[in-house]
Amino acid sequence: MGYLNSRLPAVGNSIAIIEAGQSLPFVFSRDDPTGWTCTIKVLKNVGDTPSIERTITLDSNSLWSGHLTTTETAALAIGLWRIQAVLTNSTEAELQTHRFQVNEAWDTV
Questions:
Q1: Alpha-carbon distances, residue 49 vs 14, 17, 27, 68, 70 (angstroms)
Q2: Which residues of the chain have pLDDT under 70?
Q3: How many whole angstroms separate alpha carbon 38 and alpha carbon 29?
Q4: Is there a domain that residue 31 lies in?
Q5: pTM, two decimal places
Q6: From CA 9, how far away is CA 14, in angstroms rounded?
Q7: Which of 12, 41, 71, 88 has the fewest CB atoms within 10 Å, i.e. the most exposed one?
């Protein structure tokens, strides 16, 4: 299981909404993470080439946690996106997917 956390957090099956250039924290987990690795992929549609792809290390709570940086989200096009955690070990793979939306940044005049 995992979740996204933004200023407007997702509730239930709703989609997290962020402004372009805002960081987006995430957490992915599984019951026993021993021997598993986590690679996140950010893409618009299933089958697309990921716009962002990187390996996430386990934190001290045995969770794969991190965030999309302000630079990363600023580079994403406005619209709906998927962040996928591809969890793998020597014999299995598991996919956890969460949706989020990038909106235009509001002027702060």
A1: 25, 22, 22, 17, 21
A2: 1-13, 107-109
A3: 9
A4: yes
A5: 0.83
A6: 9
A7: 12
